[in-house]
Design goal:
alpha/beta, four-stranded mixed beta sheet, two-stranded antiparallel ribbon, 11 helices, globular, disordered C terminus, dynein
Length: 340
C-alpha cells in the first residue's frame, strides 16, 4: 500500500509498518553542481477516511506552495473507491479554501496576497482542448491505483468500468494517473519479476520528479488490460468515451454534470459503502492486523471484560485529546505556524 510505495521511493529497506494515524517522514537527495541536498517532507494518512481531518495539519501557509496530493485508491475494493476519493478530495479542497479565506482576511502585504491568488489560478490555466470541461483540483494531484494485479483477475467489463472511471476522474481534476501491484518481496525491496519492478520504478520516477526536480518521464498507456500510465494533460474525454453500459442506466439518471453521470453509473455498478461502514471496516482491519487481543481464537471472557472497560476509558481520553489537538492545530494555523 501507501507505506510500501513511500519506502520504495525513499530507498528504505526496513519493513513497512501499518500507519495508525498521520505519519511523517522525509527524504534527501543531492542536486546541482555543488551537491546541495534537497529535502522532501512526506505525510501519510492511515485508516482510510476515518481520520481525514488530520490532513488539515499538513496544508499550511508555508507548505501549500509545493504541496502535492498523492491519492492511493485500492482497485480491489471498488465499493470503497468513489466514496474514498470523494471524501479525501473534499477534505483537501475544504482545507485549501479555508486557508485562502483566512489569508485574504489577514493583514498581509499586497504582493504576498497576489502570489497566493496566482497559486490558486495557475492550475486553471490550460491549452488543452477539453479545458472548458475540466475542473482542475486546486493542488497538484497524482492518483495511484494500487493492487492492479488483483484488478486484472476480474471480468473484463469490471476492469473497463474501473479503468475508464479512473481515467475520467483523473482528467476531470487535471491529475496524473498510475497503477501499482502488490509487492511480493524476496528480500528487502527486491521484486519477484521485472514487470512488477517496472511499475514501481515508473511511480518512483514520477515522485522523484515532483520532489527533487529530476527529468520527467512521460509514458502514456491507456489501453484496457495494460497498466495505466497517464501524465497530466495526456488524456481527453473523446478517447475516454461514455461510461460502460451507460445506455442501460440513462433512463434512471437525473444527472446535471459529467461528474454526476459517472458517479451514478459507477455507483449503480458498485454500490458504495456508507461513511459509517468505511470507518468501522477500517477500524476492524487495523485491530485484527495489529492487536492479537482482538482475535477470537485467543478469547478469555474474564480478561476480555476487564479489557473492554479499560478500552472504553482509553477511547474517551483519546477523543478528548483529539479535540484538544484540533483546537491547537486551528490556533497554530491562525498564527501562521508551520507544523511538520
Amino acid at each position: 500500500g501507501k507505506s510500501t510505495i513511500i519506502h520504495y521511493f525513499l530507498d528504505r529497506e526496513d519493513k513497512a509498518k501499518p500507519t495508525l494515524a498521520l505519519d511523517y517522514t522525509f527524504g534527501r537527495k543531492s542536486s546541482g553542481t555543488f551537491s546541495t541536498k534537497s529535502t522532501v517532507h512526506v505525510w501519510e494518512l492511515g485508516r482510510g477516511v476515518r481520520l481525514a481531518d488530520l490532513i488539515d495539519a499538513t496544508i499550511t501557509p508555508d507548505s501549500v506552495w509545493r504541496f502535492h496530493l498523492i491519492l492511493v485508491l485500492d482497485l480491489s475494493k471498488p465499493r470503497e473507491l468513489w466514496q474514498t476519493m470523494e471524501t479525501l478530495l473534499g477534505t483537501v479542497t475544504r482545507r485549501y479554501d479555508q486557508l485562502f479565506t483566512r489569508i485574504n482576511k489577514r493583514d498581509l502585504p499586497g504582493s504576498l496576497k497576489s502570489k497566493y491568488r496566482e497559486l490558486g489560478e495557475v492550475r486553471k490555466t490550460s491549452t488543452h482542448p477539453d479545458k472548458d470541461l475540466l475542473n482542475p483540483f486546486p493542488l497538484p494531484l497524482i492518483i495511484i491505483g494500487s493492487k492492479y494485479d488483483l484488478l486484472v483477475t476480474q471480468q473484463l467489463e469490471q476492469q473497463k468500468m474501473i479503468c475508464k472511471t479512473l481515467r475520467f476522474l483523473n482528467h476531470f481534476y487535471g491529475g496524473s494517473l498510475y497503477v501499482s501491484r502488490r509487492m511480493k518481496m524476496r528480500v528487502a525491496i527486491k521484486f519477484v519479476s521485472e514487470k512488477e519492478d517496472l511499475l514501481m520504478k515508473r511511480i518512483k520516477a514520477v515522485l522523484n520528479h515532483i520532489a527533487f526536480g529530476t527529468p520527467e518521464q512521460r509514458v502514456v498507456q491507456t489501453e484496457v488490460g495494460k497498466p495505466l500510465s497517464i501524465p497530466e494533460g495526456a488524456d481527453c474525454f473523446s478517447n475516454i468515451g461514455a461510461p460502460p453500459n451507460y445506455e442501460l442506466e440513462v433512463s434512471r439518471l437525473t444527472m446535471k454534470t459529467p461528474l454526476e453521470m459517472w458517479k451514478a453509473v459507477f455507483c449503480a455498478r458498485f454500490p458504495q459503502m456508507t461513511q459509517n461502514e468505511l470507518t468501522g471496516l477500517n477500524s476492524m482491519v487495523l485491530d485484527l492486523a495489529t492487536d492479537p487481543a482482538k482475535d477470537p481464537q485467543y478469547a478469555e471472557p474474564l480478561v476480555d471484560r476487564a479489557r473492554a472497560i479499560k478500552d472504553e476509558e482509553l477511547e474517551r481520553i483519546q477523543q478528548q485529546n483529539e479535540r484538544r489537538m484540533r483546537d491547537l492545530l486551528q490556533q497554530a494555523t491562525l498564527d501562521g505556524v508551520l507544523i511538520a
